[in-house]
Amino acid sequence: MATHSHRKRKTAQESISTSKKTKESSNCFCEICAEKKEPQEMFRIDSCAHSFCSNCISRHVAAKIRENATAVRCPAVDCGTLLELETCRLRISAQVVARWDELLCESVIPAAKKFYCPFKDCSALLLNDGDGVVRQSECPICHRLFCAQCAVPWHGEIACEEFQGLNQDERGREDLMMRELAKSKGWKRCPQCKYYVEKTEGCLHMTCRCRFQFCYACGATWSQIHGAECQRP
């Protein structure tokens, strides 16, 4: 009887060991995290037969979408198989799904017809329907005005040609307001340092704070000959 009991215990131990080995052999290996996973934790790419754990695939897709990539490829080395949004939908977050879907929609719009809201805290995708020449437009998302011709925040009554001729450091909102004020007051800019100068009285001979001397009427460098010949009021 003792011998029979010993055999039973041995058989049970062998069964547990066999079951453990069978379970271990059924585990899958993820090449990204280098860990063994349960079959239900794996994501198989049918078109190329590569498989990775769901967590790694989720992180891989999210990283590519943050880079604004519309084509997300299999992470296996030298594999060009594309992953599909629908097959990945249940493995990635709702935010990544929404952004991926948005990128796919944007990719089918011709580059010549799309531009983005110039306000950095908005950057909504906008479409150019080509219906005439439009300057002042309103973003339908943030409801702020911008110039459709220059693709910048609205620059007031300054003509597009004049605005585009300004330096980058002269295009700020305060700079444009100062420009409009100077225009209404009749102020002139020093040709050398670009500082605004106002003439309250006296002749046209101006000496700027940078010591540059110029004609207040036409902006030319001042000279005795020019002073006598300038006919501009």
Overview of this structure, please?
The protein has 233 residues and is α+β, with helices and mostly antiparallel strands. It has three domains: 27-107, Zinc/RING finger domain, C3HC4 (zinc finger) (Herpes Virus-1); 110-185, no CATH class; 186-233, no CATH class. It is 34% helix and 16% strand. The chain has helices at 2-26, 54-66, 85-88, 94-107, 160-164, 173-185, 224-229, and strands at 28-30, 35-37, 42-45, 50-53, 114-116, 125-127, 136-138, 145-147, 152-153, 188-189, 196-197, 205-207, 213-215. Residues 15-26 have low confidence and may be disordered.
The radius of gyration is: 35 Å
Helix content percent band: 25-40%
Global shape: elongated
What would CATH call the homologous superfamily of the largest domain? Zinc/RING finger domain, C3HC4 (zinc finger)
Mean pLDDT metric = 80
* Topology as a string of helices (H) and strands (E): HEEEEHHHEEEEEHHEEEEH
* Fraction in beta strands: 15-25%
Q: CA-to-CA gap between the ends?
A: 128 Å
Count of structural domains:
3
Largest sheet report? 3 strands, antiparallel
* Poorly predicted tracts of residues: 15-26
Q: Strand order of the main beta sheet, please?
A: 7-8-9
The SS-based structural class is alpha+beta
What is the CATH C-level name of the largest domain? Alpha Beta
Overall strand count: 13
Care to give the gist of this entry?
With 233 residues, the chain is of the alpha+beta class. It contains seven helices and 13 strands.
